[in-house]
Amino acid sequence: MRIALDAMGGDHGPGPNVAGALRAVAAAPDLTVVLVGDPVQLQPLLAEASPAGPIEIVPASEVVGMHEKPSEALRKKPDSSIAKCWQLLAGQKVDGLVSAGNTGAVVAGGLFLKRFLKGVRRPGIAALMPTVKGKTVILDVGANVWPKPLHLLHYGVMGSEYARAMLGIENPKIGLMNVGEEEGKGHDLIQKTYDLFRSGPLKERFFGNVEGRDVHKGVVDVIVTDGFVGNVVLKHAEGVFEFLMGLVGQEVIGALTTERDIAKKAMHGLISKFHHSAAGGAPLLGIDGICMICHGASDERAITNAVLTAAQDVRIGLNARITAAIAALPAITEDE
Length: 336
Hints:
By secondary structure, this protein is of the alpha/beta class.
């Protein structure tokens, strides 16, 4: 198994990427990580580490900056680490790719190649959100801000297969993000998508509309939404988590005179469990190959977990499951 890692992506340069790759190959004997980036920067980092598993370097002379316009950057920088990762995947030289670089450029690379799974019209990014009952899958969280109803129906299918494969939920319940739970709420896109779910083969598992406050309640196992709303929900959840942890540190732990060490340990446990680095990254579902998109601030732990998750997605045949589920849908035109 071979996973390409954008070694130049992220806010912190190649250091965390190389360190994460080293940890990943040490944890998975069947894994080879292909570092894509500047050999002048990567080779010294590897030389210091004595890798416990196979790591290769594929040269890439350019880097897409975090604030560059995605499509324009990919056109101007064909030898960028992101573009090279996609070239390796398209050429079947690797089974998947992982990047903490410019999210828009990573998605654009996949859209440009149009290497979609059979039947899939638009890929979507799936994120795992913590709930009081475990985890729920929400998608899309940033790949497709102008979806059609058929795209959202496919997200319900792909999210369900991801929940089955990664969360062990046999019959995932699907909810549609809306401004109210009542039928008939929302704009035209949501109402048409609601009808597709309610009248189609997923109707037995379609819960109906869910609101933003339901995300962490575990009301459903899969939440379907467009990329604009999904990204806002994801970033808002990250911000609330950071705010609450900071508040606990100041107002609770700061006020303790005894048992402060116990409280600090409990808070660090919460941060370790629910921080974005625990998941590592979010998969771009619908691509012919595995693609994991990581937070720009990803550290060594996040990169390790993202690479290992990508490898796990390959092992379990996630894409074959998605393809079969999409093929089982009745014929629907893209305008519907």
